Amino acid sequence: MDFLVRLSSWSMKGLSLLVFACLWRYMSEFWSYLIHPQASFLPAFITVLVVFSGVVATCGLLFSRRWGFMPLYFFLPALSLFFDFSVLPYPTAWLDAFYYPTVAWIANLSVLFFSVWLLLHLMEEQDQHHQEICSQ
User: Fold this and answer.
1) b or e along 32-62 (b: 16 or more beta carbons within 10 Å of the residue's beta carbon)?
2) Which end of the chain is more exposed for a tag (fewer CB within 10 A), N or C?
3) Distances (CA, A) of 57 to 5, 91, 94
């Protein structure tokens, strides 16, 4: 049981590192959306929300807090929907520009599904621990 708790904690830290690396990698693009707003206020507002949710998710997951999953669940789909960025770092030169959004969606969905599984696993561990305490 102790091994699974440590593995979950390290998985949360790994997710935090992925989100931080994504923010770092695409910071210049995020900044350009803020400096050069298009026709409306909405792109800049969405950019601020996405970056803020990424920073909050990084902090929460880095310190192994479960609330870090909530901003992550906004960050990953928003990253795919609005920017076509991938949270997993891979060389974009390997791909044709036509396939890049699809690969970014698949990569972000895989990270999203892993994070959902991880949170469910953590909640199940807590439930089992609670049942053990109540049965004594």
Assistant:
1) ebeeeeeeeeebeeebeebbebbebbbbbbb
2) C
3) 20, 24, 29
Tokens of 129: 């621990």
Residue (of 62, 104, 57, 100) closest to 79 by Cα position: 104
Interior CA angle at 84 toward 79 and 87, to 5°? 55
String of DSSP letters for 19-82: HHHHHHHTHHHHHHHHHS--SSSHHHHHHHHHHHHHHHHHHHHHTT-GGGHHHHHHHHHHIIII
- Secondary structure of residue 97 in the 3-state scheme: coil
Phi-psi map region of 85: left, alpha, beta (phi>0 left; psi -120 to 50 alpha): beta
Please, is 90 exposed, middle or buried when counting C-beta atoms within 10 Å of its C-beta (0-12, 13-18, 19+)? exposed
